[in-house]
């Protein structure tokens, strides 16, 4: 497709800011929270991460689609973003793993995209004003009309989107990271399943399941509405709380289930939404960040200690002033000093606001899977 055959498209933000561009992917109209991701790689993993459900993602990397898409880089069964925004698009990918172009892939999954946008200006706007709703359309090219639609859309605050992405039925996951891609030489890595982990699915990414399997876990992924009694019937060695979309404080069922599970004396590990849900279940509160953290180079750590460069994707965070006495902050986001990790002082419960599984991103935090396995081993030895 050449530029001249591209169809016009419009992007309108809730504050009335309007950008004109060209359509890629599917035609149509979508409304969602407009956020930006600063990763230089990994657009396919971002598009298919269920945590982005309900959002329109602006990629600050200036050209998307150069390496196409392939079946192995899917983080779930299909893309979950509402729409995609790019500076420029590559229509003819070149990569040995590519099986399809990005525009064709989005078209196939009925996801609209807009390109030709000044994504630097858009990102500065979101950073200054804060993340807000917006719409992409190839049909409604009148900015006022499109803005009226945006104004009717719900805000991300208070939105429970977990029910849209959680698995309808429990399933078992045993597949580790492929040998060719394995990077860890940890002594705890063991592809023989030695621990049973129940993963509460708020919108889990596949690479989390792969990393758990690479560390010797047989993972039973269960729907987010599964009761604590049903979860404990699997006799798990540990409980995993997954990432997921929307406002964590609206996921009351998940919070109540976690409140019951933390009393079961089993190691609990939470990632991103799982971290927020663990915090909420231990009495803390969450709040919405101005524009969130979405990218692959977010520094996390505590002063005087080692810094991890982490992959992040979240719009909410735990309020440090609401953390109970028996819970400790283990990591801060070193850009804005928001809470990035928690641990219970006496129980084997810990969580991080970032993505140790990467996909995309660096592997600095992979040791957290090892820590989870060690906690399960320790608990086994105690019992
Ligand atoms: N990646 C995630 O789990 C995101 C958690 C939550 N939806 C947030 O935006 O903060």
UniProtKB/TrEMBL annotation:
The keyword Translocase does not apply. It holds the Pfam family CPSase_sm_chain. Its EC number is 6.3.5.5. The active site is at residues 272, 355, 357. Keywords: Amino-acid biosynthesis, Arginine biosynthesis, ATP-binding, Glutamine amidotransferase, Ligase, Nucleotide-binding, Pyrimidine biosynthesis. Residues 7-137 form the Carbamoyl-phosphate synthase small subunit N-terminal domain. Gene3D superfamilies: 3.40.50.880, Carbamoyl-phosphate synthase small subunit, N-terminal domain. GO terms for molecular function: carbamoyl-phosphate synthase (glutamine-hydrolyzing) activity. L-glutamine binds at residues 51, 244, 246, 273, 276, 313, 315-316. Signal peptide: none annotated. It catalyses: hydrogencarbonate + L-glutamine + 2 ATP + H2O = carbamoyl phosphate + L-glutamate + 2 ADP + phosphate + 2 H(+); L-glutamine + H2O = L-glutamate + NH4(+). The keyword Ion transport does not apply. Pathway: Amino-acid biosynthesis; L-arginine biosynthesis; carbamoyl phosphate from bicarbonate: step 1/1; Pyrimidine metabolism; UMP biosynthesis via de novo pathway; (S)-dihydroorotate from bicarbonate: step 1/3. Transmembrane segments: none annotated. It comes from the Bacteria. Composed of two chains; the small (or glutamine) chain promotes the hydrolysis of glutamine to ammonia, which is used by the large (or ammonia) chain to synthesize carbamoyl phosphate. Tetramer of heterodimers (alpha,beta)4. Small subunit of the glutamine-dependent carbamoyl phosphate synthetase (CPSase). CPSase catalyzes the formation of carbamoyl phosphate from the ammonia moiety of glutamine, carbonate, and phosphate donated by ATP, constituting the first step of 2 biosynthetic pathways, one leading to arginine and/or urea and the other to pyrimidine nucleotides. The small subunit (glutamine amidotransferase) binds and cleaves glutamine to supply the large subunit with the substrate ammonia. This is Carbamoyl phosphate synthase small chain. It comes from Planktothrix mougeotii LEGE 06226.
């Amino acid at each position: 497709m050449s530029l001249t055959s591209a169809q016009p498209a419009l992007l309108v933000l809730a504050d009335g800011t309007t950008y004109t561009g060209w359509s890629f992917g599917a035609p149509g109209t979508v409304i969602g929270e407009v956020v930006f991701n600063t990763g230089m790689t990994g657009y396919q993993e971002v598009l298919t991460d269920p945590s982005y459900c309900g959002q329109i993602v602006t990629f600050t990397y200036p050209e998307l689609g150069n390496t196409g898409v392939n079946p192995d880089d899917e983080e779930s069964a299909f893309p979950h973003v509402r729409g995609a925004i790019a500076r420029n698009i590559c229509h003819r990918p070149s990569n040995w793993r590519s099986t399809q172009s990005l525009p064709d892939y989005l078209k196939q999954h009925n996801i609209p995209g807009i390109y030709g946008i000044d994504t630097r200006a858009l990102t500065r706007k979101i950073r200054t004003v804060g993340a807000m709703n917006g719409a992409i359309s190839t049909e409604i090219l009148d900015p006022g009309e499109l803005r009226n639609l945006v104004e009717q859309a719900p805000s991300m605050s208070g939105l429970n989107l977990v029910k849209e992405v959680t698995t309808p039925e429990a399933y078992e996951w045993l597949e580790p990271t492929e040998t060719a891609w394995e990077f860890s030489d940890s002594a705890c890595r063991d592809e023989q399943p030695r621990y049973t982990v129940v993963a509460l699915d708020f919108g889990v990414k596949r690479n989390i399941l792969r990393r758990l399997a690479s560390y010797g876990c047989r993972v039973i992924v269960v729907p987010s509405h599964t009761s604590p009694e049903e979860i404990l019937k699997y006799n798990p060695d540990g409980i995993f709380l997954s990432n997921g979309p929307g406002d964590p404080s609206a996921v009351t069922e998940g919070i109540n289930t976690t409140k019951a599970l933390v009393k079961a004396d089993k190691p609990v590990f939470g990632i991103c939404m799982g971290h927020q849900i663990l915090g909420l279940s231990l009495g803390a509160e969450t709040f919405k960040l101005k524009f969130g953290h979405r990218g692959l180079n977010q520094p996390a750590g505590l002063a005087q200690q080692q810094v991890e460069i982490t992959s992040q994707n979240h719009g909410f965070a735990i309020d440090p002033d609401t953390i109970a006495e028996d819970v400790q902050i283990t990591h801060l986001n070193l850009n804005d000093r928001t809470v990035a990790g928690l641990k219970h002082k006496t129980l084997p419960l810990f969580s991080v606001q970032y993505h140790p599984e990467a996909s995309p991103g660096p592997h600095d935090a992979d040791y957290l899977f090892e820590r989870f396995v060690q906690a399960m081993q320790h608990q086994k030895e105690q019992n």
